[in-house]
Write a structure and sequence with these properties.
The complex is a heterodimer of chains A (364) and B (409).
Chain A (H helix, E strand, L loop, with lengths): L6 H17 L2 H10 L5 H10 L17 H13 L6 H15 L2 H13 L4 E4 L11 E5 L2 E9 L7 E5 L5 E5 L5 E5 L10 E9 L11 H36 L1 E2 L2 E2 L4 H30 L1 H29 L2 H4 L6 H12 L4 H11 L5
Parallel strand pairs in A: 1-4
Antiparallel strand pairs in A: 2-3, 3-7, 4-5, 6-7, 8-9
Chain B lengths: L6 H17 L9 H4 L7 H13 L19 H14 L8 H13 L2 H12 L5 E4 L15 E5 L2 E9 L9 E7 L11 E7 L5 E6 L8 E12 L3 E2 L5 H15 L3 H17 L1 E2 L2 E2 L4 H29 L6 H4 L1 H19 L18 H14 L4 H12 L17
Parallel strand pairs in B: 1-4
Antiparallel strand pairs in B: 2-3, 3-7, 4-5, 5-8, 6-7, 9-10
Classes of the chains: A alpha+beta (364), B alpha+beta (409).
Amino acid sequence: MEFGLSEDQRIFEDAIRRFVEDQAPLDRVRELAEDGTGFDETIWRALGDLGALGVLVPEEHGGSGLSFFDAALIAEALGRGAVPAPFLGSAVMAPVALAAAGTPAQKQEWLPRIASGECKVGIAVAEVTGARDQAGVTLSGGTLNGRSLFVLDALSADLFLIAAGPDNLALVPRDAAGLSVEEMPTVDRTRGIAELVLDNVRTNNLLGGQDAAGEAIRRMIDAGRVALAADTLGAAETMVQRAVAYAMERKQFGRPIGSFQAVKHMCAEMVAELEPGRSLVWYAAAAQDAVPEEAHVVACHAKSHLSEIARDIANTATLVHGGMGFTDLMGLHYWYKRIMVNRQMLGGPDRVRHEAAVAQGWAA
Amino acid sequence: MDLRYGEEYEAFREEVRNFIKEYGHLSPNISGSGLSGGIHKPSERTVEWQKLLVEKGYTSRTIPKEYGGFGGEPDPLKTLIVSEEFTRAGLSPGLSGQGISMLVPTLLEAGSEEQKRSYVGPTIRGEMIWCQGYSEPGAGSDLASLQTSAREEGDDFIINGQKIWTSSAHYADMMFVLVRTEPNAPSKYQGISYILLSMDTPGIDVRPLKTMTGRSEFNEVFFTDVRVPKSNVVGRRGEGWKVANTTLKHERGLLGDPNQIDNQLYAVAELLKTETVDGTRLIDNPIYRDRLLRLQARAYAMRWHSMRLLTTEIKHEEPGIERLVVKLNGTHLMQDIAALAVDALGELGVLYDGGAHLRNNGVWPFRYMFQIGMIIGGGTSQIQKNIIAERGLGMPREPRGDVKAKEAV
């Protein structure tokens, strides 16, 4: 039993954290946020060189075949830097779906290209976790019609996984006839979210075949929720670190504001929530591989709990900075907004708590 | 990251399960223990059970054989397995008073050979009950300012003063107490001694301190010319602050037991499933249900957090800031769990002393109130936040009025 990072995982975590500091310092994030696609070729290639994009892809398909826990460590590191990279869709959700229900031919076709970074995947499942504005995609006679909102990692995607009802997941290339991608700008400019409009899109490529993807969709959503929780953990950690550093450096009334208990206690409260939150994310990530019977409930709890504590941390860390925290100058808002958007995607906390209640027989 | 326990430990789990099958019926009943803990001396049945657990190594596992223990290698994972299996079977995990959890580790670290031989065995077997004489009316969060004095007279100390918040003093056999032996020491942290004394010593007056729960979980203890031999000092005379800090470290670990948190959480879940209002089950009320789920997420976080700390212990690594947040989180979570039960019960939630409608013997309002005591005791939440910020995050101390900053420890 080892509840924590192995020696190899520590080395890996160090490497990925250093990578984030080098490749995505605040100035770079600021620059990329202008463009708002949530993607940068240089960062993406470098992530590929690190082996991060094939983390969940089996070795036989060109990946490194590591554990979901390793994927969560990468997601956390990307959250620490608010790094614009479509890691969630390509490196987490798509490989999980393909592993769960992909045919050998589908795996052979897509997994090597995902692992190399050549193929980036957008995920259209928001209608499974809460349809808004009557959106939805229907599948009839090999044709997809309708709209899907809040498609994750959409603006840079080469391939989309599109849920058509609860049991079908279509693999649709971006250049498919009848498919259009319309940006949905959110408060966070580090993730490329879009609406897909499908007008008689022909597909003969359903994951695992007709009506075969129900379980894959559910597992992929759990995986995405844990990865979002890990990303939120990383973003919140950066906010805590920056708030503590600022409180020690900023002086008022002749002393660092961090020596006032009013400020110091805010910092203590943040870290007191963050550390058990980290333990929960670790377990939820490990459970995706090792404890299938608990994987869904803990994914829900990780997503909702991290969303709740990170909201408090984001506000508190901003408050510790006083007026400066509210300015663009400090750049704190990139993490604040990343936490905001992570919270809403793939089901907000209230919705996922309800799902956890249903799974435990506490609600119908 | 590896969640598997491995073969050796699965075999150990089997052994524990077999023990439970064979001897489980001898365990004292723990269903009402939330109400009586710390009020009465452990029953004969409890002491017999304790002896059995010590003999099998299911409690006090690592205490050396020569002092009456099992003499096992430190193995936190085995301790965890015992705790998990006993919780699952609804058995008493054995005694856990301040003698066992705080005095014994301190004696093993700082006591003389004679002290270890005289006290460790009877204490872990539940034959000798201890209370802790630390806090005073004028020395709470600022414990080092304690004033109870010990004046030298030949081979003895003569103790005068008062202690407060002394759990189980009304039935304890012995006390470990902090007293000031050198009133003129240059700093308040010096000149304190850590002394063991019998509660039968003439001059000790124990007065139960009734709390808001209506019960007396604590006492005040008054000392008038209490004579104690100098050989009862633990560690060096005048260095009791250092010795005491060994024990405080052990206490802070006590107050965030994930098994206890889980037990109470699932007891509330059960309550919500069985109680009704206007003919509807409480669990079918989305607000109560959502509160339950929020608490469950926090309980999960604390459970896996304790596994993370356990791993640190197994690897002999110094735990960092993650250790410091346990008491703050655990005590507030426990009160929030009780608060949900009280709220969901509505008016029933405040029934307390008897009557046909009383639920679970009034345990929920009791726990709700008792828990505010736990939030205060062992270092209030505000003190915890200072510790987290100063020791954990390296933030500067608040300027102090009593000592120069460099003297503070």
